Amino acid sequence: MMGVRLHHRAGIRRCLICAARGFTLVELMVVLVIIAMLVSLTLAGLSGVRQRAKEDKTRSTIRKIDSVIQSMYESYATRRVPTAGTTPVLRAASRLRNIRVSMTVEMPDMWGDVGFTFPAGFPWAQNSVYQRYAAYKNRVTTVTPPSDPRFILYESAETLFMILSMSGFEPGCMESFRADEIGDIDKDGAMEFWDGWGRPILFLRWPASFVSPLLPAAQPDPLDTMRVTGDWAMTPLILSAGPDEAANDPLGTASGFGIQYRPQPTPPSYTPPFWLTALTAAIPPSPSICVGNVNGFVDTSVPEAVKAASDNITNYDLLAK
User: The whole model's pTM is what?
Assistant: First the structure.
């Protein structure tokens, strides 16, 4: 009898030990919640790290591009170009217009600036850069005709790549770019520089009305040394749409460069420098809003437009830091 009682007690003791070693359902749920919280915090931290890495990569790419574009832009201040006119003011106006023609030829931000026909006797038709660009455009249009929407969708990014790779301004600059900084998103044969999110980096030669503290409305054009026009400075803009991959195109029309503009009373338009009047010594009024591509969504009061532009990364941001 004693043996049976001892055996019963030993069994109870073993059950109590097993129960003490186990977990209740509530305890298991608490543990699972804690694990889930730790995992979510870890994933959020990793996501933030990856995002910052992409932003840093984008800034690095833009910085390399900007070093070439800015040097090229500044070189026009001492560029020798044909002039015409009987007075110093008219000759200065002629020089300014012809410098802008040179910029249009050598720093195009749209395919429409490439390969247009000059009248007989104009020196730019013999420009070697102009001829290289025209040949390159012909190869691109063979793959993607101008009627294809893709032809203009990324044209600023494609012409930017063409400038750095074919202008000859800094022949070795392409060696500084990694393979993951270059691609062809629309498979049309024209390459682009890519940001950290695998999207083309956009380019605007004359960012008229671009919202930036580095581009005040009353800053004179450094190329207009005699102030013969009312134009303001327009430093070339290099832009990534940032993490949301939406630069600023709430209408979805792909009609602009996806940047935030100040509202303007005039409708968006593209007006290239009127080189013919420069050579005939006429000085028509040409405010900055009429010189350069100002396509895009101009009404920045639309919340979607401001939000889309809020995380953009530009060369202006790099200059401000």
Answer: 0.71
